[in-house]
Every structure is written in C-alpha cells, then in structure tokens.
Amino acid sequence: MTFYLTTAIPYVNAAPHIGFTLEIVQADALARHKRGRGEPVRFLTGTDDNSLKNVKAAAAEGVTVEELVARNAALFEGLRGPLDLSFDDFIRTGSDPRHRPGVEKLWRACEQSGDLYKKHYEGRYCVGCEQFYAEADLADGKCPEHGVEPQLVAEENWFFRLSRYGDRLKELIISGELRVEPESRRNEVLSLIESGLHDFSISRSRARAHGWGVPVPGDPDQVVYVWYDALGNYITALGYGSEDDAPAPDFDRWWTEGDRRVHVIGKGIIRFHAVYWPAMLLSAGVRLPSDIFVHDYVTVDGRKIGKSLGNTVDPVALAGTYGADALRWWLLREVPRVGDADFTVERLVTRANEDLANGLGNLVNRVVSMAWRYRDGAVVIPDTLVDAADRAFAEVFDALPAAVGEAVADFDFRAATGAIVRAVDAANRFVETNRPWDLAKGEKGGSLVDGVRLDTVLSLLVHACRVLGAELAAFTPGLAARVAEQCGEGTTVAPAAPVYPRLEVAESDRVTAA
C-alpha cells in the first residue's frame, strides 16, 4: 500500500520555531512507522516562498526577497540533521522548476471547468494568514489567528467558484472518502460548509505583490494567490504539470494510483486544506487527498508561538543541547491528539528523564548487564513458556506492535508512545518480581531449577527490549538504534553501555526561564 505523506509548507519570513517542529516530527514519525511496517512511503516537505509575508519581512530587513527566502528556506531544509528527519523530498515553491508549470496547469484546468472569473473586490486582508476575512469572522475587528487588524484592500482579482462545491465536499467528508481527523475538526469543516461557501479570490495585483509570485496565466498584471499556489506543491512535487514534456511516473504512482495521500497540517489552516484544496482538485479533475490530519498548537505561556509575540523557541538549539530524541519524544508524548500543549525546557527534560533515562534506559542497561554477568552475553531461548505469568508477560510485547500501529493509524502519537511506556513499566516490574540476581545466587548454590528459570527470565527480558527498540524507531530513531545495538539479535547481546543519560536543564535555559 503506497503512502504519500506531506506537511504544510511554512512561510519563510523567519527561521523555524518549535510550532512547525511539532508538525514535521509527527509526519516523520508517521513516515518511519509506515516504512518499518514495510509500506512504500514518500514523505514531502518544503517551504512557501511566494508569500507577501516574505516580501514584507525582506523589506523590513533591508534585503532582497530572494536573499531572505533562500536563507530561511535553507534553515527549514536544514532541520533534517538536528531533528533526525527522514523526508524524501523538499520543494521550494519560489525556485523549484517542478512547481510553476504545475500551478499553471492547475489554473488552466480550473479555468476550463468554468470555475474562474474576474471581478472587483474589496475586503479586509490579514497578511499573516494571507487571507481575506469577513467582518463576522473577526474578533473585535482583529484577525482571530494573529490578533491584528486586517488591511482594507480594494482591487480587481480572479475568483474561484467555491460555491459550486459545497454539497460534493460535504458528501465526501461524511462518507469518509475524504477523511478529516480528529472528529472535532471534521465537524468544524462540515459546519463551515453548511454555513455556506463563498467564492474566494485566487489572485493579487502584481503591484501589491511587488512582482513576487507565480504570474497568472494570460494575465501578467496579476500573480497567483499564495494559497492557490502553495497548495499545489503536493502534486507539483510529483511532476504534475510536467506531463507535456515527459511522463510523470511519481504523480501516477503516489497520487493518481496511490493508496493513501495524507496531509499533516495545523488547525489554523484547516479551511484551506479541507475546503479550498479539495474543491480546486474537483474542479481540475484531479484525485483528492485521502486523509487530512489536523494537529493543535505548541504554546508558550499559553499563547500561540509567533515572531511578533517574541515567544519563539529555536528547535535546532534545543536539539543541540538536549538531543533530537528528547525533543521528538516530548512532542510525540506530550502533545495530545486534541488540544494545545504548553512547552517549557523543564517539561522536556523531566519527560525525557522519566521515560527514556529512568524507564527504558535503566531497563536496557539492567537486562544487558545481567545477561553478561550471568551468561557472558548469551541468550538461552526456552522452547515453551510453562508459567502463566511468563506467557502473560510475553503477550504484552507480542501485542505491542499492534497497539502502536492502531494508535498511529488514528494519528494519536500520545497513545502510541504511551503504549510503549506501559510496556517498559511492565518489563521493569517483571525484573523486580523475578529478581534475576536471586536466581543467579540459587544457581550458584547448586539449584538447577533456578538456573533454568534465570535463562527464561533473561530471554523474556531481552526479547522485550528488542521489541521496544523496534517500536521506538519511529519516534526516537537515535535511541532506538542504540537499543537495537545493545540487544543484538538471536542468542547474543552486545556488551552493556548506557543508551540514554539523564538530562539537566542548561544554565542558559534556567536564566531564560527566570
């Protein structure tokens, strides 16, 4: 089953912060999990280069738009190493040669369907959202997402006939053909559709855009609206728009004929992905995504992270100080499927120490050390498990892959990591209940029964650690690799070495927190 996975593409008016890190780590965990189950995966991320926000940020810095976009896009692409990411493709909408032809083809396809028209328009525009707002959608006259008053804009633009597609979109979402998760977000989209869909502007004047963006086909005085442009990246990266010059096997394999086409996005852009984008694809005669997973926000002091608020958190610095595994684990373990999660360095360190150092790290070190102390690193695997408690313990780890898989299928990373933590706790209890050190003493005193029992206990514990390492690979790949190396394969384990040290809050972060 092919699995095509994308993140939203962030604006590059500033360096990456931990808010986008949540999304790309969730997507990476999903991609790694699917690959680990043997499924063909293509994982795309990238940057939205053609935003008016980028133009304004460049002007504020006194640099060219090209310079600002190139610099910041490189920072986003550079997250791969610090965050231990595994994306297969990275697209930049402003410079990737695949993108503009695809946007132009999408435009012409919608035009041929009779869904594009030009008219004069006046409205309130939030540059932060790159979106017009009706008065009723504002909060005390301000953008509900950014808390600023939108600009009053009047100009002639191209419009898309979104009003044609309400009934069809509702039908697709209710049937599950277009799956929106979690349920609360699905209901939000349905409510939005039922309230009535209005045609929306899909171009901006070239003058207001300062000439930055994809020119409208046949109308060079207009540039394509950044959201119409940006949403297309999910198919332009696969070669949509290149078919006239060469075949597009990636588009055929991963989109037209693909099994799953999954978008991972934040709640603030659900309208664009679950309403505008599917309607555009319906108009263009292109297959729709299969799944849209919507996450909430990482906050700081209860507030959405934003450069203008001065509360951004640098994920590269965090990973450099505490490690990619600690940061990834906090994002996947602490952020709920529904609801925001407030970030502090102290919470990151506490969670890593409790789960990864004290829980898993301690377990692996104890098990491997005992295997060497009592059996010189050999693992004697019993033919059968006679004891009911042993069978019950083994069943915990036999069932763990399915439990993790079920949670990931629901896009519930907290549940998936929670299942792993519960298995770690079960293994640590098994050590305390069976006390291998006492069995070793009994064996040394001449008890053959204790010797056989020690072999069984150690074998079960080594197997448990191997399963844990395999299931952790999607979430904390660095730690998982160390666990796998320690626990070895077959009838031997590697010499014991710590797999995860305890962390301490850096002094610089203590000062910042104070």
Describe the protein's topology:
Layout: E1 3-7, H1 18-36, E2 41-47, H2 52-61, H3 65-77, H4 80-83, E3 89-92, H5 99-112, E4 116-126, E5 131-133, E6 151-160, H6 166-175, E7 179-181, H7 183-194, E8 200-201, E9 203-205, E10 215-216, E11 219-224, H8 226-231, H9 233-236, H10 249-256, E12 260-266, H11 270-284, E13 291-295, E14 298-300, E15 303-304, H12 315-322, H13 324-334, E16 341-342, H14 345-375, H15 388-409, H16 413-434, H17 436-444, H18 448-472, H19 477-487, H20 507-513
Parallel strand pairs: 1-2, 1-12, 2-3, 7-13, 12-13, 14-16
Antiparallel strand pairs: 4-5, 4-6, 6-8, 9-11, 10-11, 14-15
Helix pairs in contact: 2-3, 5-11, 6-7, 7-11, 12-13, 13-14, 13-16, 14-16, 14-18, 15-16, 15-18, 16-18, 17-18, 18-19
